[in-house]
Amino acid sequence: MIESREIRLKARPQGMPTDECFELATVGLPEISDGEVLVRNLWMSVDPYMRGRMDDVESYIQPFQIGEPLEGGAIGQVVASKNSELAVGDFVESMLGWREYFIANQGMIDGDPANPLDGLHKRDPSLLPLQSYLGIAGMPGMTAYSGLVLLAKARAGDTVFVSGAAGAVGSTVCQIAKIKGCTVVGSAGSEKKVKWLKDTAGVDAAFNYKKVSSVSDALSKVAPRGIDVYFENVGGEHLTAAIEHMNDYGRIALCGLIADYNEPSGTEEHGLFMQILAKQVRVQGFIVTSSYDQYPKFLNELAGWIREGKIKWEETVLEGIENAPAAFLGLFSGRNTGKMLVKLADPAV
Length: 349
What we know:
The chain has helices spanning about 50-55, 105-110, 140-150, 170-180, 190-200, 215-220, 235-245, 270-280, 295-305, 325-330, and strands at about 1-10, 20-30, 35-45, 75-80, 90-95, 100-105, 120, 160, 185-190, 205-210, 225-230, 245-255, 280-285, 315-320, 340-345. With about 350 residues, the protein is of the alpha/beta class. It folds into two domains: about 1-135 and about 315-345, Medium-chain alcohol dehydrogenases, catalytic domain (Quinone Oxidoreductase, Chain A, domain 1); about 140-290, NAD(P)-binding Rossmann-like Domain (Rossmann fold, 3-Layer(aba) Sandwich), CATH 3.40.50. Strands 3, 4, 5, 6, 7, 14 and 15 form a seven-stranded mixed beta sheet that branches. Helix 3 (about 140-150) crosses helix 4. The longest helix is centred in the middle third of the chain and has 13 residues, at about 140-150. It is globular. About 45% of the residues are buried.
């Protein structure tokens, strides 16, 4: 029997989650049966959308259950197999993070091949580092591509504003927008992140929203001709300011509203939607799973951009399953630059 540690939801948060919302438990996993594989997770992802799953409310994805392990993207290695499709040593992506080991049956192995969030999917470490399938080459990267390219249809000459620009999604949006010939401005929460955006991601302008008198004033300086596309990750003051500076027929890709995630009820600025109406702005919320039929195209384009040196990425890594809650909570205090990851183990030789 294999012992596996896992992080469970102990209590639903009221506002900002705390350590008391999580518990570390140890379970024993039985011997695998015919058709099953035993997977040891090597890397797991934490993402802002997980905050919504901690509430017991109806949404586009099922909420986490009290007393059950949380779920999220993970890269693991098959360590025992009684399945002809997966051999010992194979690397797989799943949504069964927040645990050190798990057993997958035939139904999971036969998941939708067009949707990396369904079932198990083999991943090739010779193409990209394994953990990148949870970041630049995974859901965050695909989210950036879906919102900017497929939804907002950013094109050469557009001015694109990205909030949360140094995060896993935002930093990818910035670089794809530059590849598309856009002028790109971004906001971030520290001088270090602003420097990375300018020096490494290559944005045209960036500002530390914690150091300016207002986001609107900052946009007046960095985007004097207005904004054509806004990629929304933050909400609150950022959304209000972006709409104020939006050009007629602008487009907003509404990806996330992290500033409001821990508020009991969201915020609403007076007159916000009147400006949307007057400027005939297109605002569309989107969920990345709706675009996963385009994942192979995205991955092919991404690989080319990486080979050409046009895309770079950062990772913030904590180690050990016991530090998964700290990694998750760090998302809401700006602890991460780029993708926040938890390393659980090294691959078997």
